[in-house]
Amino acid sequence: MAPYVDIVSGTADISAIASATGQKDFTLAFVLADSSGSCTATWGGKTALDDSTVAASIAEITAAGGTPVVSTGGASGTYLETACTSADDLAAQYEAALDQAGSNFLDVDIEQTVTAATVVKALSTLQAARGTSITLTVPVGGTVLGLTDASIALLQAAEQADLEVTVNAMTMNFDGGTAGWGTAMTTAAEAVKDDVASVWTGKSDTEIYGMLGVTPMIGTNDSYATTTVADATTLLDWAEEKGLAFVRFWSVNRDNDGCPDGTVSATCSGIAQTDYAFTTLFATFTT
């Protein structure tokens, strides 16, 4: 369990969250190319990797006994994976970000068009050099569709390169139908499981579930749905039953009661809740 935190916004007090919930590990979002679009890793496209404020937040994670996960990509901005046309250059930028965070855990969140071969070659170089644990975070198209064709192509490239990865399904922002959002998220995650099994054909169901993670957007989603604590509990219970590798959510910055009117905000969930309700719930996840 390592929820996402918008590390450059300054809207999440890591020490307070850790103290209140016992949560230690966090996924730092997002590393992007710099504002000029060059192949230079920055936090959020504008903040240097060695920024002192970001470093202080990372220090709070390690002081709590936690591990930071470095996440690249995301919903917007110029991707390193686009700006770095050379796989070697991309691998070097991944390594620079990991070194700055004191981490060997990399999450690559791909929601834009990238050249899969370049990304996979860079990740293979990184993993061979330092044994980096790598997660590929990919959008979910729906309860039936599962992963998009582009995401499946990325996974196929990873499998063909013998890259060891986990697959993080973004169970958010799709049409869940009428069954209820908690059920819709688990149904969509099952569709993702089937897609992953179609790529790694030699693995058992247990092994495939063990390669998967799920990440909902808590509270009011950008479109289609609202994730309540009850919906999150449904997804979490399913993840524990199936033996998933991990759970995350977007984001701890939003895990509060600051806008209970349905607003879509980066700093509050949009629903009535107690502060840190989702972090407290997800922190109980065990496999």
The number of distinct β-strands equals 13
Mean pLDDT: 97
CATH level 1 name: Alpha Beta
Shape: globular
Report the total helices.
Answer: 10
**Helix percent band:** 25-40%
**CA distance, first residue to last residue:** 10 Å
How many domains would you count in the coordinates? Answer: 1
**SSE-based structural type:** alpha/beta
Based on the coordinates given, report the CATH architecture.
Answer: Alpha-Beta Barrel
Strand content bin: 15-25%
Major sheet description: 11 strands, mixed
Here the CATH topology equals: TIM Barrel
| Helix-strand sequence | EHEEEHEHHEHEEHEHHEEEHEH
CATH superfamily: Glycosidases
Radius of gyration: 18 Å
Question: Spans of 5+ residues with little confidence (pLDDT < 50)?
Answer: none
Protein name: Chitinase
InterPro entries: GH, GH18_Chitinase
